Amino acid sequence: MTLFEHLAELRNRLFRALLALAVGSVVGYAVFPWVLAVLVAPYCDALAVLRPGDDCNLIALRPLEPFSVRMKSAVVIGLFVGGPVIFYQLWRFITPGLTRRERRLALPFVVLSQVMFALGIGFAYLVIPQGLRILLGIAGPDIETMLSANEYLSFFLTTSVAFGLVFELPLVLVFLALVGVVTSARLREWRPYAVVIIMIVAAVITPTTDAVTLLLMAGPMVLFYEFSILAARLIERSRRRRASQ
Q: Residues 167, 81: contact at Cβ < 8 Å?
C-alpha cells in the first residue's frame, strides 16, 4: 500500500478501537455503582489493619468530583471491556507486514494479550492493600489519613492499568523471539541495560514516589524479562530440532 493507504488503514483501525472503548465506557458508567465496592475494597482492607473499626468511606472535596470519578472509572472499565477489539485492531494493522506463519500467531496473541492484562490488574488488586498500609501508616498514628474519592481512585486505576501493561511485556518479547527479531543471546546481552530501563520506566509510570510501589512495579518486569530469555531459548531449541529433521 501507499503511504496514504497506510494512513487510511491506521485511521480506520483507530476509529474502531475508539468505538470499542466508547461502548465499553458506556457499560462501565452503567455498572459503576456495583463496581465501586470492588474498587474501594483494597482501601478498606488497609484501613482495617491500621485503624480497626474506622469507616472506610471516601470523601468528595468538590461538587464535580463524584462525576469525574465515575467517568475515570468508566473509561478504565471500558478499556478492559473493549480490550479484545482494541488488541485485535492493533494486530490487524501489524499483520499485513508479517509472513503467513506469523499471521497465524495473531489470534492466540490477541487472546493472551487480554488474559495477561487481566492478570496484571488482578496482581495490582492483591498488592495495592499492602502498599496502602505502608503509605498510610508511614507517618505514624498521630496523622489520620482521609482520602478523597478522586485521589484514591486515580491511584488505584493508574496502578491497575500500569500493572496490566507491564504484564504484556513477556508477550511482546516472546512474539519478537518467535518471528526472529530478537534471540536469547541478544536478550542476555541486553540484560544490564534492560534492568536500568525497567527501573526508569517503573519510576515514570508509578503513580507515587515511594520505593515500595516502585519495587512492586519493577519486580515483575525483571522477572518477565528473565522468563522471556528462557522462552526465547526454548523457541530456538525447537527451531533447531525441526531444522535437523
A: no
Give me the number of domains the chain comprises. 1
- Pair 153, 39: CB distance under 8 Å: yes
What range does the domain containing 40 cover?
1-133
Report pLDDT digits (tens) over 92-116.
Answer: 776 666 566 666 766 777 788 888 8
Q: 212: buried, middle or exposed (CB in 10 Å: 19+, 13-18, 0-12)?
A: middle
Bridge partners of 148, per DSSP, are 59
Q: In the chain, where does DSSP find H-type helix?
A: 3-50, 65-81, 83-94, 100-104, 106-137, 149-166, 169-178, 184-205, 211-244
Q: Can you point out the beta strands (E) in 110-164?
A: none
Determine the distance from the C-alpha atom of residue 132 to the mean position of all C-alpha atoms in its chain, rounded to a whole number: 19
Q: For residue 94, tell me if it sits in a domain.
A: yes
The amino acid that residue 144 corresponds to is E
Whether 167 is in a domain gets the answer no
Whole-model pTM?
0.73
DSSP state of 143: S
Beta carbons of 220 and 123 less than 8 angstroms apart = yes
* Residue 226 belongs to a domain: no
